[in-house]
Design a protein that fits this description.
The chain is mainly alpha-helical. It contains 17 helices and three strands. The protein is 67% helix and 4% strand. It has a three-stranded antiparallel beta sheet, covered by helices on one side.
Length: 396
């Protein structure tokens, strides 16, 4: 007689659990797995590239080839945990904590100008906490998106107005102006990202187009005045000069961009092979594990591998745009659009400066470059996107 047992009139516990997992309203079904997989693939690929770029650099690793890759794995684990936490709490529940997060972000940014501040490559944009460094400006991206979204969407989501009025727009710009003014002191790259985020948020909010056009005009006039008045530091002027003329001082300011082009160009179609890049192994490209991580992909993985990174970034942007379009309220739409503006511009700038079509701005490639703060906020953004999508699917 068979010892196999059958359930009559009901599912076995295993099948019942699987049905709950795959049910229409389950968390599993509401998560955008394409977005998660694309961001995870970028992070894992970036971790491998970081190892390739640093394993032979004894001057910065202290003789430990795994020094940077170990830290990057830890950064990824913390980032993924933050994403899950944000997704679990939900962007709406976090709405009440936005003023606190905004205030803490501004406070951390001000600490850069205290003895805790640390200067790296001419930029005083980090604070030291023991053996670790933190870049507060990264948190400003999330703080600006959330604070502007909270103000711009309040009356619209409450049904009081169809679009934000002029007073509401001014209040949101006032909140964005504080972190923007702080980073303008010594981090032009971060200031450019915040500027693009502000424009993207305003466009998504439905504010009058005159506000966006006015900000673009004000930004152009401000950039000209900054240049004419000599406000830029010497290293910032040198970066723009090297972009305008790559042959200028090839052993100095133009060295980074020249070596980056050589590394990418030498990769050909399918690359020299992982860990086989001569430019990477020979340590010819400075800051190759951070700002110029794309050159490792170009040399060792070739056009196909570098193109794969761009494709994955495109998938992240595509899914984020879908989430923005399908959000159930303006607050979610603004957050998702702000994240799209941030990821799109920063990716274009980072890859562009490696290819020589954009000036060097010291911006990491989202999910790929080495850096704890950058990885944390990138995955916090993924958590916010997932929360917006989950609320939409729950109410659909």
């Amino acid at each position: 007689m068979s010892t196999r047992s059958y359930t009559i009139g009901r599912l076995s516990p295993e099948k019942s659990g699987l049905r709950k997992l795959l049910a229409r309203g389950s968390v599993f079904r509401r998560v955008d797995w394409i977005l998660v997989l694309a961001a995870s693939a970028l992070s894992l690929l970036g971790t491998v590239l970081v190892y390739s770029a640093t394993r032979n650099r004894t001057g910065i690793t202290g003789g430990d080839p795994q020094y940077f890759v170990t830290r990057q794995v830890l950064n990824l684990a913390i980032g993924a945990t933050l994403a899950v936490g944000v997704m679990w709490l939900g962007h709406h529940r976090l709405r009440t904590a936005v003023p606190v997060f905004y205030g803490l972000s501004v406070l951390l940014m001000l600490l850069v100008f205290t003895p805790m501040g640390t200067e790296i490559n001419g930029q005083r944009a980090w604070i030291s906490i023991g053996d670790y460094t933190l870049q507060p400006g990264e948190f400003a991206k999330v703080a600006v998106i959330l604070s502007m979204a909270m103000v711009l969407a309040a009356k619209v989501d409450a049904g009081d107005r169809e679009h934000p009025d002029h007073r509401t727009v001014l209040q949101s710009l006032g909140l964005a102006a504080i972190p923007l003014a702080i980073v303008l002191v010594d981090d032009m790259g971060m200031a450019m990202v915040l500027g693009v985020i502000i424009l993207g948020v305003l466009l998504a909010s439905g504010a009058r187009l005159a506000w966006t056009l006015g900000l673009v005009l004000a930004g152009a006039v401000g950039a000209v005045l900054v240049w004419l008045l000599g406000i830029l530091d010497e290293y910032q002027i040198n970066r723009f000069a090297a972009f305008a003329n790559p042959a200028l001082d090839p052993s100095g300011v133009g060295y980074n961009t020249n070596q980056a082009r050589i590394a990418i160009g030498s990769g050909g179609l399918d690359g020299k092979g992982l860990f086989q890049g001569t430019q990477t192994t020979g340590q010819f490209v400075p800051e190759q594990h951070t700002d110029f991580i794309f050159t490792v992909a170009g040399e060792e993985l070739g056009f196909l591998g570098a193109g794969g990174i761009i494709l994955l970034l495109g998938i992240v942007l595509w899914r984020a745009l879908r989430i923005a379009r399908g959000a159930s309220e303006l607050y979610g739409t603004i957050i998702a659009t702000g994240i799209v503006a941030w990821f799109a511009f920063q990716s274009f700038e980072n890859i562009g400066m490696a290819l020589g079509i954009m000036p060097v701005a010291g911006l990491p490639l989202p999910f790929v470059s080495y850096g704890g703060t950058s990885m944390f906020v990138s995955w916090i953004a993924i958590g916010l996107l997932q929360s917006i999508r989950m609320k939409r699917t729950l109410t659909a």
